[in-house]
Amino acid sequence: MIRNFFDEVPYYKPYSRLRLYNDTEKINNYYNEVYFGDKKTKILVAFAENKVAGLAAWRISDWDTDVFGFKMGHIHYVAATGGYEKECIIKNMLLKEIMGLARKARVKLMSLRVDAADFSSIHALEGQAFKIMDNLVTYITQDTRIKDSKMFLSQVKNWFSVKPMKRKHIHGALHLIGEYFKTSHYSNDPHIPLSRTKAMYEKWLETKFRDRRHSDLFVATRNNRIVACSIFSSDQLLARHCALKSLHKGLVVVAPEGSGALMALVHAQIEKRPDLDFAEFETQGNNYKMLEATQKLGMRCIQSRYTFHKVL
After folding, report:
1. What are the strands of the beta sheet with 51-60, ordered from one edge?
2. CATH code (residue 22)
3. Count of other CB atoms within 10 angstroms of residue 90
4. Is the pLDDT of residue 22 over 70?
5. Distance between CA atoms of residues 275 and 279, nearest Å
6. Which residue has the higher pLDDT, 30 or 102?
7. How many domains does the chain have?
8. Average pLDDT taken over every residue of the chain
9. Do 86 and 54 meet the contact criterion of CB atoms below 8 Å apart?
10. How far apart are CA 169 and CA 253, in angstroms?
11. What is the C-alpha to C-alpha distance for residues 124 and 77, in angstroms, rounded to an integer?
12. Quick one: which of 79, 181, 185 has its CA closest to 130?
């Protein structure tokens, strides 16, 4: 009963829009593990007329807590059915319950992301004093579009020197990432020291660099200077459930003088994984240069989300 709940909530299955497969059972199994597979996650259920009317899940984020030095929690989802008014009521109840549990656990800051069109969630969060901290847009490029772009991409690649990231590139990549994330949801929150945000991205990049078996890291240079970098991770869960070879949680950072480098980095990624089904990455909704580049590559938007924070 609970596991079928998200069939009625379209915002939580963005991969269903890709049309890469016809096996609904497999993608449902994938999402069931995404939403119910973490044993540390606490799931709350709301019932109405003996039916599941709402679900919410949260957990203490050990990684963020360790980096930032105070307890941070993350709400994986808050979902409900029944139309806007009922959904607002149910989501408010679920959020109040989570806030009570979080305070008992001495959590200092809670965060979550919701679809930009999920108005009942947005309004319920605002009613609980959550604040928007950023807007992320998710783009994908599928294999057919990648192949169609290969000739153009090969020409762009000649403008830059693209190579796998090495230890000597870390400092330059961190400088780029630091500039880009001055407007991230961590940096936008005045309750999080900027020094801790910088330390978080340093640790994140170091973790990805060490896990190169499941992560692809590239840098693009021009005149021996790093002007762009990209970090993608392979989605092992999607591969196991749906036999799809994909890269997700992609981060691409391009300096002002690196115009066109995104395409060169994508070309390098294609050469490394020619059997890739699709790649996915996120960028901020006001990063207009990156949005323009994704359109030139034929990438397709599959989701737009807001990041919310609340200090407890």
Report:
1. 42-48, 51-60, 72-80, 109-115, 300-311, 131-142, 278-284, 246-254, 225-234, 215-222, 161-164
2. 3.40.630.30
3. 24
4. no
5. 11
6. 102
7. 2
8. 83
9. no
10. 14
11. 13
12. 185
The two tokens of residue 74 are 């993350």
- Which residue pairs, CB below 8 angstroms and at least 24 apart, start in 10-16? 11/79, 11/114, 11/115, 11/117, 11/118, 12/77, 12/79, 14/138, 14/302, 14/303, 15/238, 15/302
Which residues pair with residue 252 across a beta bridge? 230
Bridge partners of 33, per DSSP, are: none
Residues 121, 151 within the same domain = no
Domain co-membership, 95 together with 242: no
Q: What is the pLDDT of residue 14?
A: 67
Give me the residue label for tokens 């973790």.
207
**Residue 24 Cα distances to 52, 184, 209, 246, angstroms:** 21, 35, 35, 18
Helix/strand/coil for 83: coil
The CB density around residue 203, as the number of other CB atoms within 10 Å, is 13
Domain that holds residue 73: 5-129
> Residue type at 124?
A
299 DSSP assignment: -
With H, G, I as helix, E, B as strand and everything else as coil, classify residue 6.
helix
Query: Which amino acid, one-letter code, is at 153?
Result: L
Handedness of CA 281, 283, 289, 295 (dihedral sign): positive
Say whether both 49 and 116 belong to one domain: yes
Helix axis angle, 261-272 to 288-296, nearest 10°: 50
Domain end position, chosen among 129, 149, 167: 129
Please count the CA atoms within 13 angstroms of the CA of 38 that sit on its side-chain side. Answer: 16
Q: Are 143 and 276 in contact (CB under 8 A)?
A: yes
The residue behind tokens 């992560």 is 215
Kindly provide the b/e burial profile for residues 2-21, where b requires at least 16 CB atoms within 10 angstroms of the residue's own CB: eeebbeebebbbbbbebebe
Digit-coded pLDDT (tens) for 141-198: 765 455 555 545 555 556 788 899 999 999 888 888 877 667 788 888 999 888 888 8
Strands 246-254 and 72-80: unpaired
Task: Find tokens 């630091």 and name the residue.
Answer: 178
